[in-house]
Structure formats: C-alpha cells, structure tokens
Design a protein that fits this description.
The protein has helices spanning 4-15, 61-74, 116-120, 136-143, 156-165, 181-193, 197-209, 271-282, 295-301, 379-392; strands at 21-28, 31-42, 47-48, 54-56, 95-97, 107-109, 230-232, 243-245, 268-270, 286-287, 290-291, 313-314, 317-318, 322-324, 329-331, 346-349, 354-359, 364-369, 372-373. It is an alpha+beta fold and 393 residues long. The strands form 6 sheets. It has an 8-stranded antiparallel β-sheet, with helices on both faces. A 3-stranded mixed β-sheet has the order 8-7-19, with no helix packed on it. A two-stranded antiparallel sheet has the order 4-9.
C-alpha cells in the first residue's frame, strides 16, 4: 500500500482551490499505515499545513460527547430507557406537532416521554433550527433564538431549557432528524457527574489519552496553529474552484472560552489528538493504559436504535443504507460502486470538513480533515474513502 493515488487526488483538491488544506490518516487496526498533509495553514500566508494544526471539529464533537455519556451509562448512572426528564425535568410532558401543522401552536401531547436512547440516536424529535429553514419546526427554533448561532451565548442548562419549551418534530422514536440532541446529552453529563462538561471531558478523556490540544477554544499561544476556514466561492457548485475566508482568519469566536460548551459541535482538535481518540475506540475502549469503555458497550453503540424502515437523511441528501446507533451512523449495505467491506462501518463528520470512519470488516479506519464550509458530505471526503478502500482491498 503506497497511497500514491490518494495523495495525488488530495493534492488536486488543494491545487484546484477547492480545499485550502487537507490532512489524512489511515489506520490498519490501530497502526498508522499512512499519514499526509497537503496545502496550507492559511492560503494567504502559504505556511504549509503543520502536523499539529488545530481544526474546528464541529460535529465530530458528537462522538466525544456520546462516548462521555456512555461512560456514565457503564457506571450505572442511567439506563437507555430512562426518560430524559428524570435528569432534565423540563423535558417532562413533551408536545408534538400535529400532522399538517401550520404553526408551532398546532401540537398534541406526545404519546410517551423522550428516552435517553433517543437523544443519543437523534430520534427524539428535536431539530437544529437550520435543517429545513422553511419548515414549521425550524421556524419555531429560529423565533426562539435556538438556531446554532444565537445559542452560542447560552450555557448548556439554558439551551436545554429553551429546547424543552419547543414542540417536537415527530413522536419520539418514530423518525430521525439531525438536532441539538447531543447537546442535551452533554447537559446530562453535567447533571450526572456534577462537573462542567469541559472539566469532565478533560479529566475523564482528554488527559488520560494525552489529547493536549483538544478543547472548546484556542489559547493565545496556540492561535498560530489554528487553520483558516474557507467557504466555497460558489456555494451552489462544490467542485467549482475558488475559496473565500469563512470567518475572521485568526480564529474569531474560538479565541476565548465560550459560554456554550457545545456537545454537538464545539471542540477544536488536531489530527494527532483526535486520531488517538479514534484509536481508543478501534481498540475496543482501552488505550494508553486506561479503559474508557468496555467492548460490550461499544458494540451496543454500534447497534441500530432507529425504528424499522427509518434511516439517516438530510433534506439535501439521503445517506443511503445508513441507520444510527448511540452516537454513530452505521452502514448497513454498500452503495453503488462499493463492496461488502463497507458493511458495519460506523462514522460521523463535521460541517467544517472533518471526517472519520471505522470499518470493522477490513479493519481499517480513515480520518480526513480540512476547513471548508460546508464540508460535510462533500465529494472530497467520499473520494478519500473510495481511494483508501481501493488501496486495502
């Protein structure tokens, strides 16, 4: 395996100004068999992408949060069929939008409570406020100021209080919708542990794993290692060359500790840090002399939690043959052009272009990081996965 074709393709994305940078890493089991970096920390100053470059992880944070909550599950602090309201009482007596609802006032009482397994699998009926901007549910989120932007000034407790006041998009457990559910998980971690979410992560995960650059903000002495984020010059064509800076180049809101310790999308990290976290998962929950989860718990997390016939889908794209476990998306069958090696793959990615996936059948894992908005489900990450599988099959 020389991964020459993979490297050439990733460099092509940089040369075409589709990506400003891209770092890739491939594992065989827990062994690193390929690592490469292409592009620049910032296209403006042409500093080559560093090994310890800091990336905004966005929704790759969700994997960390899910592992954190399941550590408390192993300690017997909750069960998957406990109502969320046992720990966050304001979620008692949820209301659901009626079929054909025209306003957020068109609701009925839910048939049952929101369960812990449902917030871990995005099947609780919550939303994000930007998934379908014209929908009744997301307009209600926007009106309440719960939209992924204005929520930044809230703490987890207030965010969850606001979410509890909003209607559910559907009866809990009957569908799948990307949502603030993982932020609810983060708040439950705080309640059960008695610690701030960042303190729990640092003491229970980051420090034992040696993840020295992973946090919710970037201190002044590390800012030069924060990669610049870009947006496509033509948002309608993801393969058209041309990039524009996506936010203030020196880090913007990541320069100070935020009020919202977002379990759904708040972390920054590096390839060395996050790949160590992923290697712990691949190693069935133990790494660096520490046990974080038992293999049985990770197997449970890789078990579908959705109702029969329900799959993962976004308004702009259905993720074919994909269901959801406790924090992981799960591949159930190959797409066109894929082999059976992908079956059982578990994964998630971030909106800024950080992707990771683990494939038990061939025993390989891939991480592909860039900073492009939007980067989730972009062709570059699909190319990366296709070319990795081509090398190892």
């Amino acid at each position: 395996m020389d991964f020459k074709t993979l490297d050439e393709r990733m460099q092509w994305y940089v040369d075409q100004e589709i990506l400003g940078c891209v770092a890739t890493l491939v594992l065989d089991g827990t062994d690193v068999v390929h690592s490469a970096r292409h592009g620049f920390m910032s296209a403006e100053d042409q500093r080559p992408l560093q090994e310890d470059a800091i990336f905004r992880m966005a929704s790759n944070t969700k994997l960390v949060t899910s592992i954190a909550l399941m550590m408390l599950y192993e300690e017997g602090r909750f069960t998957l069929d406990d109502p969320v309201a046992d720990y966050l009482p304001k979620f008692a007596d949820p209301k659901v939008l009626v079929d054909g609802a025209e306003t957020a006032a068109d609701v009925r009482p839910a048939d049952g409570p929101i369960l812990m397994r449902q917030v871990l699998s995005h099947s609780a009926g919550l939303s994000y406020g930007f998934i379908e901007p014209t929908s009744v549910i997301d307009q209600a989120y926007e009106k309440a100021g719960v939209n992924g932007v204005t929520t930044a000034g809230m703490k987890l407790e207030r965010l969850c209080d606001e979410l509890a006041e909003l209607p559910l998009a559907y009866e809990p457990g009957t569908s799948w919708r990307y949502s603030f559910a993982t932020d609810v998980c983060a708040r439950v971690v705080e309640v059960l542990s008695g610690q701030a979410f960042d303190t729990f992560l640092k003491e229970r995960i980051f420090e034992p794993l040696g993840m020295v650059d992973t946090d919710f903000w970037v201190p002044a002495e590390r800012v030069e290692r924060l990669t610049t984020i870009y947006a496509a010059a033509d948002m309608l064509d993801p393969m058209k060359p041309g990039l524009v800076p996506g936010e203030e180049p020196k880090g913007g809101r990541f320069l100070e500790k935020p009020a919202l310790l977002s379990g759904g999308g708040g972390l920054v990290s590096t390839m060395p840090d996050y790949s160590t976290f992923i290697r712990m998962i691949v190693a069935e929950g133990s790494w660096n002399g520490h046990t974080f989860l038992n293999p049985e718990t990770l197997a449970l997390m890789r078990t579908n939690q959705l109702a029969d016939g329900v799959g993962v889908q976004f308004p702009m794209r259905v993720m074919a043959n994909t269901v959801f476990g406790l924090g992981f998306a799960l591949k159930t069958a190959p797409d066109d052009g894929e082999t059976d090696a992908v079956v059982g793959e578990y994964h998630w990615g971030g909106m800024y272009g950080t992707h990771s996936w683990m494939a038990p059948k061939p025993g390989i894992t891939g991480l592909c990081f860039t900073q492009r908005m939007p980067g989730f489900l972009h062709p570059f990450s699909l190319d990366f996965k296709r070319l990795v599988y081509a090398e190892v099959e």
